[in-house]
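2 proteins. here.
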Amino acid sequence: MRTITVAYDGSYYTFKWLKVLLWARREFKKNGFKIQLLSLTSYFPPFTTEQNQLDLALKKTNLDIVFLAFHYSTSSIGQDLESRQAFLLNLKRRCNKIVWLDTADSTGNCLFDVMPYVDGYFKKQIL
């Protein structure tokens, strides 16, 4: 069975968008996939940075497919271009597939700089 690890910022805003994965858990299981939801705020003390939390969490996890869901306006992962690219390169070496889940409301802006590092890019809203 393959594992889909969904790492998100722990916000209810993002969780609302991701909970469909939990609702469809049985269908995923029938097709050979296990869903593992990883909320960073649930596991780590608040004094560590979001980037450090994510690094620690993903090192402890068996990585097959990783979905990353962070809102660009509230996440430190979405703010700094160089650290985001370095993080994705490091993660790419440790997992089979990376899928970026763009949780921004607008259909006009995308994080195109992640495209070379991810295997899939899903936008929350489309025209």
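next one coming up
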Amino acid sequence: VAELETEGLCGFIFKGKSPSSGMERVKLYDRNGVPKKEGVGLFARVFMEHFPLLPVEEEGRLGDLVLRENFIQRIFIYERWSRLCAEGLTWSGLTGFHARHKLILMSHDQNRARELGRELSGASSRDLDEYAGSYISSMMDILKIKVTRGNHVNVLQHIQGYLKKQLDGDDKRELSDAIEQYRLGYLPLIVPVTLLRHHFMKYPDEYIEQSYYMQPYPNELMLQNVL
């Protein structure tokens, strides 16, 4: 595990149920040879203790579309955080990092996202390195929470509010209908997101343009096409 420190890891996939690499529900046998699925693989346990912030997942769980999207999203965010720290962390850099990921955090847990934002806004008197460790730990905990259609709808409607003075009645209805059809499960997330991107190309907004919510990872992964 220590040798992996220099590998620049941004995520790690374990083998499910393995006595060495299982993340959870690994069989532990009592003295009578009766198994209980309550263990963690030996390597996986040491690895996760050594890299507590690193995004990890089991290969079998990646068949779940929401878990897979969540894992890949965390990988890209962790990579951006690592790059920010390598370039030299500043309060300005930290607040900018938070601003660009705020909407993503809200799609996971709106209350905890707001709480983290309030905490950050009042943290400038604290030691930066000490607070940064606390910040990224809280952020990664929030990102582990499964997103919901309801939270996505709230974020989409929040973004829609930035266009309320620019769009005419027909465009507003089309966008609202796309968001509602997504809420009902008839459309994938990529449809209202693409429609929003289209409108912001015509009516740019600096905050929305810099937000990773609209494009959290490369389009080639097509994860939002099935969510």
